[in-house]
Amino acid sequence: SSTDGPKSAHFDICSKNLKYKFSENAFNTNILKRHSGQYYTLPPTHIQKLFPYGLPPRFQLQIKTFNEGCVMVRPPALELISYLKRADYSKPPLRYVLYGDIGTGKTMSLCHALHYCYSQGWLIVHVPDAHLWVKNCKELLPSSSRPSRFDQPIQASQWLKNFKITNERFLSKVQLERYVWTKRESTEKGQPLGELIDQGVNRMKSSSDVVGAVLRELRLQAGGATEGEGAFKLAVAVDGVNALWGKTSLKKEDRTMCEPEELTLIHNLRKMMKNNWSGGAILTALSQTGSVFKPRSAYLPSELLGEEGFDNMEPFVPVSVSNYNEKEFESCYLYYLDRNWLQHPHSRSEEGKKELIFLSNKNPSILERLCAFL
Amino acid sequence: MAASVRHLLKPWTPSLCLMRWSRYNPYYLDPDPSKDARVPESELSPEEKELQELKTVSPIKAALSSDTSSAFNDPLISKFINMMMHDGNKILARGIMTQTLETIKRKQVEKYHKSPAAKREEIECNPYTVFHQALENCKPIIGLASVQKGGKSYQVPVPLTDNRRRFLAMKWLITECRDNKHRRTHMYEKLSQELLAAFTNEGNVVKRKHDLHKMAEANRAYAHYRWW
Question: Which parts of the chain span the membrane according to its record (chain A) (predicted)?
Answer without folding.
Answer: none
